[in-house]
Design goal:
With 510 residues, this protein is α+β, with helices and mostly antiparallel strands. It contains 16 helices and 21 strands. Among the domains are: 33-81 and 89-209, [2Fe-2S]-binding domain (DNA polymerase, domain 1), CATH 1.10.150; 393-497, Enolase-like, domain 1 (2-Layer Sandwich). The strands form 5 sheets. It has a 5-stranded mixed sheet, with helices on one face. A hairpin with a 3-residue loop joins strand 11 (279-281) and strand 12 (285-289). Helix 2 (106-113) crosses helix 5, helix 14 (442-448) packs antiparallel against helix 15 and helix 15 packs antiparallel against helix 16 (479-497). The structure holds flavin-adenine dinucleotide and FE2/S2 (inorganic) cluster (2 copies). Residues 49-52, 54-59, 77, 79 line the site of one FE2/S2 (inorganic) cluster.
C-alpha cells in the first residue's frame, strides 16, 4: 500500500567497504567529492586530480556494487562523485591493489613490464581503468581496450605501451592476493558460474550487510542529503522539497560543485531507488528506470537497435557512462545531449511522477525552452519508455564532434523511417545542437511523408529542413557549419537507407 509518508530515515552515517573493511563516515558534507575525501581525509594520494570535471581520468577509481548475488566492478571519476553516493558499495583505489609485501597486481605488473607507466599523474587512473577491464572481460579486443581507456588522457607519450599492458595483464597469476581481496582471485566480475572463494562470499555478505531499505539522511549546516530506496519515498520527499536538487550520476551536477562552486542545499539522490534502477522489456517497449546507468541503458538499447552502437560508444567515456544515467541526460535538458535526438526519433515517452500521480509525456514535448522542461514543481522522471523497433523501420543516429571519444556534440541527429514499396509511410527526424532544445524537424518530416524515398523528395525536404532550425554560432561550431552538417547527416541517412551508399554529394557552405 502506498503511503503518504516516507519510511524512517537513518540519519547521518555513510557505510561503504574499503580494503575489505566496512568504513563508516558520519560527518561529511553531502557534496564532498570522493577525490577530496580520499586525498585530504584519508591521505590516499594515489588518486590524482587533473581536471576536476570528468575529462582526464587521473582520478579514476573502481566501485563494486551488488548485482543480484554477484559484485559488479566499474570505473568512475572520483572528482565528480559525492561521498554519500558510496553508501552500500565497495570502493577500490589504486592503493587497494597492492598485495602481500607490496606485490603488484597483474595490471600493475603488466604496466611496469610494458613501460606503460609514463607519468605519475595519469598512471594511477590508467591502472584503475585497466583494473575495471580486467574484472569485466577475459579477452578484450583492441577496440574494447581502446574503449576502456577512452576516459584517460595522456598528453606526453601515447597509448601503445598501455594498450600492450592491457593485452598482457591476463598472463600474470594473482599470487599477490590478500585474504580480503576477493577481486584479485579472478579476472571476471561474473562469479555465478564457478565456485566462489571464501573471500568472495565474505565480501558479498559484507556488502549485503550494508544495504538499506530505508532513507539515508545526512545533514551538515544548511546542507541536507536524502537517499531514499523506494519510489514512494522519493515521491514524498520530492513533493516536500520541490526546490531540492535531484542527484543521479552527478556527471552534470558534480561539475556545478567543482567548477561553478554552487552550494546545493538540499539534495535528493535517486541512485538507490529500486524502481528507478530497473530495466524491463515487454513485447512493445523497453522501460528504463530513470536512474539506470548510461552503460546499462545503452546495452539494452543497442541489443534492440544495433545501429546505435557507435553513437552510444562515443558518448563521453566508460567512467562517465558508468556513473551517469539516462534519466539525468534527459532531465538535464541540454540542447546538445546525445541520447535525445534518436530517442525522440523512435517515439520515446517519459513517465513523470508527482506524489502518487504519474503521467506519460512524449519526449519531444518534454523540452519547453532552453534548459527548461515540462517537469512541474515536486515532479520527477520515473522511467523512460522506448518503443521496440517497428517492422520494416530503419533507425540511425550520427554524432559530429571534434574528437571520436569524450567530446560534446556540435550536432547530433536521430532518424527513423518506414518505407512501403519505396514510399515513406512513417518518418521522424530530430536534431540536437541546432536549436535551444533537442527538436524534431517537423517541416522536413511533412515534406517526406507519403512521398517516394528518392533524390527528388530528399532535395525538396532539404529545403524544409533548412527552415526547421536556426542554429547558433558558439565555441563548438558556426551556424553555417551546423546548418551544413544538418543537411549532410540527413543526406547520409538517405544514402544508407536507400541502397545508394556509393553515391557522394557534398553540400557546400551557404
Ligand atoms: C566529461 C564529460 C563528458 C560528457 N560527455 C557527454 C556526451 O558525450 N554526451 C552527452 O549527451 N552528455 C555528456 N556529458 C553530460 C552528462 O554525462 C550526461 O548529461 C549524463 O547523462 C547526466 O546524467 P547524470 O545521471 O550524471 O545526471 P546528474 O548530473 O545527476 O543530473 C543532471 C540533471 O538532471 C536532473 N535529474 C537527474 N535525474 C532526474 C530525475 N530522475 N528526475 C528529474 N530530474 C533529474 C538533475 O537534477 C540535474 O538537473 C558529459 C559529462 C562529462 C562530465
Ligand atoms: S580529475 Fe580529471 S577526470 Fe577527474
Ligand atoms: S601518462 Fe601522463 S601525460 Fe602521458
Amino acid at each position: 500500500m502506498a503511503s503518504t509518508k516516507h519510511r524512517a530515515t537513518t540519519s547521518g552515517t555513510v557505510r561503504f567497504v574499503l580494503d575489505g573493511e566496512v568504513v563508516t563516515v558520519s560527518d561529511v558534507e553531502p557534496t564532498r567529492t570522493v577525490l577530496n575525501f580520499l586525498r585530504e581525509d584519508l591521505s590516499r594520494t594515489g588518486t590524482k586530480e587533473g581536471c576536476a570535471e570528468g575529462d582526464c581520468g587521473a582520478c579514476t577509481v573502481v566501485v563494486g556494487e551488488l548485482a543480484g548475488d554477484d559484485v559488479r566492478f566499474r570505473a568512475i571519476n572520483s572528482c565528480i562523485q559525492f561521498v554519500p553516493t558510496l553508501d552500500g558499495k565497495e570502493l577500490i583505489t589504486v592503493e587497494s591493489l597492492k598485495g602481500i609485501n607490496g606485490a603488484l597486481h597483474p595490471v600493475q605488473r603488466a604496466m611496469v613490464d610494458c613501460h606503460g607507466s609514463q607519468c605519475g599523474f595519469c598512471t594511477p587512473g590508467f591502472v584503475m581503468s585497466l583494473f575495471a577491464l580486467y574484472k569485466s572481460a577475459q579477452k578484450p579486443s583492441r577496440r574494447d581496450i581502446n574503449d576502456a581507456l577512452a576516459g584517460n588522457l595522456c598528453r606526453c607519450t601515447g597509448y601503445r605501451p598501455i594498450v600492450d599492458a592491457a593485452q598482457k595483464m591476463y598472463e600474470y597469476g594473482s599470487d599477490a592476493a590478500k585474504p580480503h581481496e576477493h577481486w584479485m582471485n579472478c579476472s571476471f566480475s561474473s562469479m555465478g558460474d564457478r565456485q566462489r572463494s571464501t573471500s568472495e562470499r565474505e565480501m558479498i555478505e559484507r556488502l549485503q550487510s550494508i544495504q538499506r531499505r530505508d532513507t539515508l539522511m545526512l545533514s551538515q549546516g544548511t546542507k541536507t542529503y536524502f537517499a531514499p530506496s523506494r519510489a514512494a519515498d522519493l515521491a514524498v520527499l520530492r513533493e516536500a522539497h520541490p526546490d531540492a536538487r535531484i542527484l543521479a550520476g552527478g556527471t552534470d551536477v558534480g561539475l556545478w560543485v567543482t567548477k561553478q562552486h554552487k552550494d546545493l542545499n538540499t539534495v535528493i539522490y535517486v541512485g538507490n531507488v529500486a524502481e528507478l534502477t530497473r530495466v524491463e522489456v515487454t513485447d512493445r517497449h523497453i522501460e528504463i528506470g530513470a536512474a539506470v546507468s548510461l552503460t546499462d541503458a545503452f546495452a539494452v538499447l543497442v541489443k534492440h537497435y544495433p545501429e546505435l552502437d557507435e553513437v552510444f560508444r562515443r558518448f563521453a567515456s566508460p567512467p562517465i557512462r558508468n556513473a551517469g544515467t539516462l534519466g539525468g541526460n534527459i532531465a538535464n535538458g541540454s540542447p546538445i545531449g546525445d541520447s535525445m535526438p534518436v530517442l525522440i526519433a523512435v517515439g520515446t515517452s517519459l513517465t513523470l511522477r508527482k506524489g502518487k500521480r504519474t503521467r506519460e509525456l512524449p519526449l519531444d514535448e518534454f523540452y519547453v525552452a532552453y534548459q527548461k522542461t515540462a517537469l512541474e514543481p515536486g515532479e520527477f522522471v520515473e522511467s523512460i519508455r522506448v518503443p521496440l523497433p517497428l517492422l520494416g523501420g530503419q533507425v540511425r543516429s550520427y554524432k559530429i564532434a571534434k574528437r571520436f571519444d569524450q567530446d560534446i556534440s556540435a550536432v547530433c541527429g536521430g532518424y527513423r523511417i518506414v518505407l512501403e514499396d519505396g514510399v515513406v509511410r512513417d518518418v521522424r527526424i530530430a536534431y540536437g545542437g541546432v536549436a535551444a532544445t533537442p527538436k524534431r524537424a517537423l517541416r522536413c518530416e511533412r515534406a517526406l511523408l507519403d512521398h517516394p524515398w528518392t533524390q527528388d523528395s530528399v532535395d525538396a525536404a532539404m529545403t524544409e529542413l533548412d527552415k526547421d532550425y536556426s542554429p547558433l554560432t558558439d565555441m563548438r561550431a558556426s551556424a553555417a557549419y551546423r546548418r551544413l552538417v544538418t543537411r549532410n547527416l540527413f543526406y547520409k541517412f538517405f544514402l544508407e537507407t536507400s541502397g545508394k551508399q556509393t553515391q557522394t554529394r557534398v553540400f557546400e557552405y551557404a
